[in-house]
Amino acid sequence: VQLVESGGGAVQAGGSLRLSCEAYAYALRPYCMGWFRQAPGKEREGVASITAGGRTTNYADSVKGRFTISRDNAKNTLYPQMNSLNPEDTAMYYCAADRVCRPIWDESWQDWGQGTQVTVS
Prior knowledge:
The chain is an all-beta fold. It has strands spanning 2-6, 9-11, 17-18, 20-24, 32-38, 45-50, 57-59, 67-72, 77-82, 91-98, 111-112, 116-120.
């Protein structure tokens, strides 16, 4: 199982980014998916999650109203659309997958990507 994130980069405060997480060697369709982030010197935190069918999403309070998680099972890809970014959003962003839909505060998700860096200045 391999997850590969992309789309990170540098952006000014108030700007937007859309990350992608693509799965290789298996189909994402049966899996719940999540986005997590880790800022320098801080513990990893859950950002958002989405169920296998895409009907239910959950967000951390810090990103509610600004981030939108979505998935395209036909493209085997997970997205977060991140708007109104601020410097506190600077972090390495990771996607994760699990057949069990876990809370975003639970870090025992089955599979993880290597991360993509987002820097907001």
